[in-house]
Write a structure and sequence with these properties.
Strands 3, 4, 5, 6, 7, 14 and 15 form a seven-stranded mixed β-sheet that branches. It is built from nine helices and 15 strands. The model has no long low-confidence stretch (mean pLDDT 97). Helix content is 29%, strand content 27%. The structure holds NADPH dihydro-nicotinamide-adenine-dinucleotide phosphate. NADPH dihydro-nicotinamide-adenine-dinucleotide phosphate binds next to α1, α2 and α3.
């Protein structure tokens, strides 16, 4: 028997509870895993609270991330005892996920635990940190190097944002961190922000083109804030956009694109191909300093997950939230 957080529907209402399940309840897949750690991402928050239509098949075990060891495998790439990490692929959305002591998954969804990281550290990174790495790689691919100027990170005290600030600093960029929570300025500075930009400075309808302030940006917020950021990006700069914490619309104009050669680079972590995944994890394990793990993570139990799921949808979580199974 094992413990699992289960989302179910009763009388058309979503209920979330911890259930004791038998291994036979797990979906039939290639690799059965003893989960050591999972984490809470914004998408988990939307799924568990029911605020977003993330889950359509019930009952469902949420949790888009997990790290653990293989119990049994029908696939030649994995043997019992192997340490693995999973993010994305719709796990925790339409396939039972990581907020349970056991999971059963397709081999192709897994990556071997990156060298140099513990499973716990991998979950302190999780989907959010992995996405931050993909955003940095996207900026690099457009030629936005540290010598080009300052990089803006929006939603900086969140999971993606806090890792993005840390990674950029480690790579030698100057980082301006946008936050709506001034009380997080000290943490963001410790992680590597050279400057704090109050969120209010980027709210409200702005001009199609504004003063050029940043060589690039990593945006987790979307909506009007992203539109305002685009209007302030330098000639030949780029914005890596991965999130919608402020809304999924984008009320912009073509002006930054056609007059300043600005690129809007979309970043998705869920379906990221295996080789890129492995490369991103390897870079994360090399780049994140010990101080990141000490400063920017909170560990919780399965019993606390619903509370933190609510908090993350309200923008009240700072850094990454790790779940010990
Ligand atoms: P968090 O909740 O940890 O971080 C989001 C941050 O955005 C908050 O901490 C807050 O930072 C800021 N924020 C919250 N609400 C608003 C608002 N209304 N307006 C402006 N800023 C706001 O979430 P994650 O870091 O886990 O995820 C961030 C976003 O990225 C989400 O939209 C998520 O869905 C998306 N995402 C996308 C992925 C992909 O593959 N494309 C993968 C992972 C995440 P502060 O208080 O500092 O301002």
């Amino acid at each position: 028997m094992f413990n699992a957080l289960v989302i179910d529907k009763q009388d058309e209402k979503q209920v979330v509870e911890i259930r004791q399940l038998d291994e036979s309840a797990l979906p039939e897949e290639e690799v059965v895993i003893a989960v050591d750690y999972s984490s809470i991402n914004y998408k988990d928050g939307l799924a568990i609270t029911g605020k977003g239509k993330i889950i359509r098949n019930f009952p469902m075990v949420p949790g888009i991330d997990l790290a653990g060891s293989v119990i049994s495998s029908k696939h030649p790439c994995y043997q019992a005892g192997d340490q693995v990490v999973l993010t994305g692929w719709g796990v925790g959305e339409n396939h039972w996920g990581g907020l349970a002591e056991k999971a059963s998954l397709k081999a192709e969804w897994l990556v071997p635990k990156p060298e140099g990281l513990t499973g716990k550290q991998a979950m302190m990174v999780g989907t959010a940190g992995f996405t931050a790495m993909l955003c940095v790689m996207a900026l690099e691919s457009y030629g936005v190097t540290p010598d080009k100027g300052e990089i803006l990170v929006t939603g900086a005290s969140g999971g993606v944002g806090s890792v993005a600030v840390t990674l950029l600093k480690q790579l030698g960029y100057r980082v301006a961190a946008v936050t709506g929570r001034p009380e997080n300025a000290e943490l963001l500075t410790a992680l590597g922000a050279t400057r704090i930009v109050p969120r209010s400075e980027l709210e409200g309808k702005g001009r199609p083109l504004d003063k050029q302030l940043w060589a690039g940006a990593i945006d987790t917020v979307g909506s009007q804030l992203l539109a305002n950021v685009l209007s302030k990006i330098d000639y030949n700069g780029a914005v890596a956009a991965c999130g919608l914490a402020g809304g999924f619309d984008l009320p912009t104009t073509v002006m930054p694109f056609i007059l300043r050669n600005v690129a809007l680079l979309g970043v998705d972590s869920v379906m990221c191909p295996y080789e890129k995944r492995k490369a991103a994890w390897q870079r994360l394990s090399e780049l994140l300093p010990a101080s990141y793990y000490a400063q920017a993570c909170t560990e919780i139990s399965l019993e606390q997950v619903t509370e933190y799921a609510e908090k993350i949808t309200l923008g009240q979580v700072t850094g990454r939230t790790l779940v010990k199974l």
